[in-house]
Design goal:
Layout: H1 3-27, H2 31-47, H3 49-65, H4 70-76, H5 80-95, E1 103-110, E2 113-121, E3 124-129, H6 134-146, E4 149-154, H7 159-175, E5 183-186, H8 189-196, E6 204-208, H9 211-219, E7 233-237, H10 243-255, E8 264-270, H11 271-286, E9 291-294, H12 296-301, E10 306-307, E11 321-327, H13 330-340, E12 345-349, H14 353-362, E13 367-370, E14 389-391, E15 399-401, E16 407-414, E17 434-435
Parallel strand pairs: 3-4, 3-6, 4-5, 7-8, 7-12, 8-11, 9-10, 9-11, 12-13
Antiparallel strand pairs: 1-2, 1-17, 2-16, 14-15
């Protein structure tokens, strides 16, 4: 390990220790105290809006000079509309039920011997993300509400924006009478590697970024990782699809925010409807500047589009590019999605309920939709207030992860001199196992 890396680890250990201590205080707060802190954060962000805008403009200017990739540039932008929406999301978190302290199991094991399983905070979260300064607000608020401390590491392209946001958030915590060390910001590459080594201080790592970035995190830490590497989402158009409705869905799912992980990257169309559907859908998409790439059958209908390659079916463009494939059946569409998809979000357009039921049951994804845009895959839109990220793993939490994904649980048993020997051996006393909830 280099001298700079050793120094980064030593410095970060001190930061993480302060965050863990602040997290213990958060974990003991009442729901009202946490909600008051969230409102103070929202007010501090509103008061700092001008400073945040200046910082973001500086980041955007530097990004242009550095030729930042178009998808990342789109995520980096934090204009007045996005900021206002993000602050509304902060306040929405305060309205949500508090997940910490919930009694999940309340059971009498025997007379005077009672078991409880109680939800509790994870402890300290390490969040590493590329671009997306708005993630700072979402994650910090969710951490406070769930009683967790958080160490944030944004990409270098968003460093000024993140600093302005975290400064306001810490001011809000201070104004609420809480330890601002509950929310920390890291800014250097050395600190990223150091954070991944702090398994004694950090309880969960959540990476948000590119495929390569997430895989790097997963392969370089012993800390549990929650996240998704790809956002390869699909829209399948079945034989009974309402084409006017489907065109609106396709445009929204691709054009609204093409760099989002819930934007579609592949359009699948049933062969029986291809000749009719493809011109309608292509016209709607191309009018919005979408470049279409098609398989051989699609190009027989849409003669002006370029050929898609095998790699296109597994590519997350994060841009106004869409791969188009004609399939012979709904089963073929499902097979394609389960082969090339990233288990993020996939949708079917159909007026046939049986087809919709089959698709939604058999597609292996965190989100499976019928006659609506994949762009609804979002914690705010699900009513979670905000999200820390989207998980495509099979084990829960899965999909947009809000408050429920930031708590674990502990078992508490209260007795009165009870010992296991009473319940073992030839004359063992039976347990009552009577649920009290």
């Amino acid at each position: 390990m280099s001298v700079s890396s050793v120094a980064a680890v030593e410095n970060l250990v001190a930061i993480a220790a302060r965050t863990r201590q602040a997290a213990r205080t958060l974990a003991s707060l009442s729901t009202q105290q946490k909600n008051d802190a969230i409102e103070a954060i929202a007010q501090a962000l509103e008061a700092a809006a001008a400073d945040i805008a200046i910082a973001n403009e500086a980041d955007l200017k530097a990004a242009l000079e550095d030729n930042l990739a178009k998808p990342l540039y789109g995520r980096l932008k934090l204009d007045a509309v996005k900021l206002k929406g993000a602050i509304a999301g902060v306040r929405d978190v305060a309205k949500l039920p508090d997940p910490a302290g919930t009694v999940q199991i309340h059971r009498e094991l025997d007379d005077g011997l009672v078991l409880k399983r109680i939800a509790c905070p994870l402890g300290v979260l390490g969040i590493i993300f590329e671009s997306r300064p708005d993630a700072v607000m979402q994650i910090s608020t969710l951490a406070v509400k769930s009683g967790n401390g958080v160490i944030l590491k944004g990409g270098k392209e968003a460093v000024r924006s993140c600093q302005a946001l975290v400064k306001a958030i810490r001011q809000g915590l201070t104004q609420a009478g809480l330890d601002p060390n509950a929310v920390q910001l890291l800014t250097t590459r050395e600190e990223t590697r150091a954070l991944l080594e702090l398994d004694s201080y950090v309880d969960l790592i959540i990476p948000r970024g590119s495929n390569a970035f997430v895989r790097f995190v997963q392969e370089n830490t012993r800390i549990p990782v929650l996240g998704h590497a790809d956002g390869i989402c699909h829209l399948y158009v079945d034989t009974t699809a309402d084409l006017e409705k489907t065109a609106k869905i396709a445009v929204d799912a691709k054009v609204g925010y093409p760099s989002a992980c819930n934007a579609i990257e592949t359009l699948l169309v049933h062969r029986d409807i291809a000749a009719k559907a493809l011109p309608v859908l292509a016209n709607a998409l191309q009018q919005e500047g979408v470049k279409l790439l098609g398989d051989e059958t699609a190009r027989q209908v849409l003669t002006d589009i370029q050929a898609a390659t095998e790699d296109d079916w597994s590519t997350e463009y994060s841009d106004l590019i869409l791969a188009v494939r004609v399939v012979d059946s709904i089963e073929a569409a499902i097979d394609h999605i389960n082969t090339y998809g990233s288990r993020h979000t996939d949708a079917i357009a159909t007026e046939d309920q049986a087809a919709a039921d089959q698709f939604m049951a058999q597609v292996d994804a965190a989100g499976v939709y019928h006659n609506c845009s994949t762009r609804f895959a979002d914690g705010f839109r699900y009513g979670f207030g905000a999200e820390v990220g989207i998980s495509t793993q099979k084990m829960p939490p899965r999909g947009p992860v809000g408050l429920e994904g930031l708590v674990t649980y502990k078992y508490q048993v209260v007795g009165n001199g009870h010992v296991v020997a009473t319940y073992a051996g030839k004359d063992a006393k039976p347990f009552t196992h009577r649920d009290l909830l």
